[in-house]
Amino acid sequence: MNTKTLDILIPVYNEDKVIVKTIQQILENTKCDYLISICYDYDQDPTLTIINKNFPNNNKINFVKNFSRGFNNALKTGINKTYGDAVMFYMADDHENYMLIDQCYERFIDGYDLVCPSRFIKGGKMEGNPFLKELLTRLASFFFQYFSTLPIKDSTNAFRLFSRKVLNSIENFESIKGFTLSFEITSKAHRLGCTMTELPSVWRDREVGYSKFKLLSFLPPYIRWLIYITKTSLFHTTK
Predict the structure, then answer these.
(1) In this predicted structure, what is the pLDDT of residue 112?
(2) DSSP labels for 217-237?
(3) At what angle do helices 18-29 and 46-54 cross, to 10 degrees?
C-alpha cells in the first residue's frame, strides 16, 4: 500500500474569492494523500477569512505564515514547515490544472524527482497572456530546449512537483524577486542529475484580480538562472 504524501503549497496575497474555486476543485478531485498549505504574508489578508468561511475546520487545509513577505519566501516557508514526501507549487488562481495533481503524484511514485506540467508540449496551452510576457516565456523555453541539456520544454512554469529528497539536497534557496523559486530548484536539480518528466498543462492569465508579475523587474532573476543552466549544460556536455 502506498503511504507517500503530497504537500500542495498555495501562496496567497489578497486573492479574495478566486481562491474558493481553486480549493474546491482540489478537494473534490484529488485522490492521493495530500495536504493543502495556504502560505500567506499577513494575518489580516482577507483570503484567510474567505477560506475559513467556505471551508470551516477542514483537515485538508493548513495555514502557514510567511517568515517574511513575497511569493518566493512564502514557498520557502511552506517547504520548511511541511513534511510530505513530495511538494507541489500550485497557483491560487489556477482553475485549469486540478486534474493534474494526481497525475503528477503518480509520476513521482514512478520514481521521478521533478514532475513538470508543461504549456509547450502536445496538449499544453498558454492563453490570455500579455504579448510581451508570452513572447519572452516562449523564447526562454525555446532556448533551453535547443541550446541546453535541460530535459524539459517548459522551463519557467512555477507549477511543479518536487520530491522532498530533491528539496533536501539543495543547500539553500536564493530566489527573492519574481516567481523564480521553482526555476531555481529546477536549475539546481538539473545540475545534481535529478530525473524530470513533463505532462501537458494549460495556463490562462487570471481573469479576477490582477497579475503580480512585473516583467521588467523580474527579468534579471530569470536571467541569473538562465546563465546557471547554460553553465550546467556546458559541464554536462564536457564530462
Answers:
(1) 98
(2) HHHHHHHHHHHHHHHHHHHHH
(3) 40
| pLDDT recorded at residue 1 | 45
Please tell me the predicted confidence (pLDDT) of residue 130.
79
**What is the pLDDT at residue 196?**
97
Per DSSP bridges, beta strands 202-204 and 125-127 are parallel
Q: For residue 131, what is the DSSP state?
A: H
Phi, psi of 55, deg, nearest 5: -135, 65
Residue 86 CA to residue 161 CA, distance in Å, equals: 7
> Low-confidence residues of the chain, pLDDT below 50?
1
* 210: CATH: 3.90.550.10
CA distances from 188 to 65, 146, 166, 194, 227 (A): 26, 19, 9, 9, 12
Strand runs labelled E in the chain:
6-11, 34-40, 61-65, 86-89, 114-118, 125-127, 160-163, 196-200, 202-204
Three cell numbers written together for 126: 498558454
Asked if 66 contacts 41 with a C-beta cutoff of 8 angstroms, the reply is: yes
**1 inside domain:** no
Cβ proximity of 193 and 152 under 8 Å: no
Q: How far apart are CA 162 and CA 185, in angstroms?
A: 9
Averaged confidence pLDDT in the chain: 89
Share of the chain above pLDDT 70, in %: 91
Look at strands 114-118 and 34-40 and give their pairing: unpaired
The total of structural domains in the chain comes to 1
CA-based torsion, 96, 102, 103, 108: positive or negative? positive
Find the domain containing 64 and state its range. 6-238
